[in-house]
Amino acid sequence: MLKIKSYERVNSIAEAYELNQKKSACVLGGMVWLKMGNRNISTAIDLSGLGLDTVQELEDEFVIGCMTTLHDLETNAALNEFTGGAVRESLRHIVGVQFRNCATVGGSIFGRYGFSDVLTMFLAMDTWVDMYQAGRIPLTEFVTQKKDRDILQSVIVKKTPLKVTYLSQRNSETDFPVLTCAASLIGDMPRTVIGARPGRAMIVEDSEGILKGFGEMTKKQKPQAAQDFARYAAEHVPVGSNMRASEDYRKLLTQVLTRRAWETVGGMKK
After folding, report:
1. Are residues 172 and 152 in the same domain?
2. Domain total in the chain
């Protein structure tokens, strides 16, 4: 059971940060995951009055407030045009619209949950997080850090030229994913992200350079590169077993989804 001693709807991030320095305090997101745990919270900190629930499109980036709901991301025309619908695809399977109208991007990213479709998708883009104390940090760096008492204000997606696709495997439509996969060309740099391993999403380092120059490969070369890298990913991505799938099944999914993802990216025109 979740027990809250006091509730504060703050008037500034500075106030929220000060209150959050107590270990028993907690910043509230959409409350869809937090409420399922057993925890005593001395001070629940609500950021909903700070106007951090919008998606701003600037000339060179999207600035997504931490209280923006997943459904707002799912239906944002500009963000989905930029990603070719990949953002919508990464969100549409998460429980249902009512749930996605509550869950927030800030809670999803700051939580660094192992089952997170959101984390997998944003790692596949040129994404940064804007922290109150630490400032802007690349998401690739933030995801490996230990949780602290800082506050995530917004998520920034740079408008670096992008080709990206998102795939996931689920046992049922609205269940947690068995495995997630995102493949992207950020500029000319290939990036592959595997999540729900069932651990936290990770970038697959292409140490053998299999995908190097993928954007310039011929139509005949791309499928072979996708197949070769899929085998490499299955061998190098650590996966495990849980109630949804075995380690062996996840290894197989890693290879299949990685191949499909890169074949999709290879067929994109823009």
Report:
1. no
2. 3
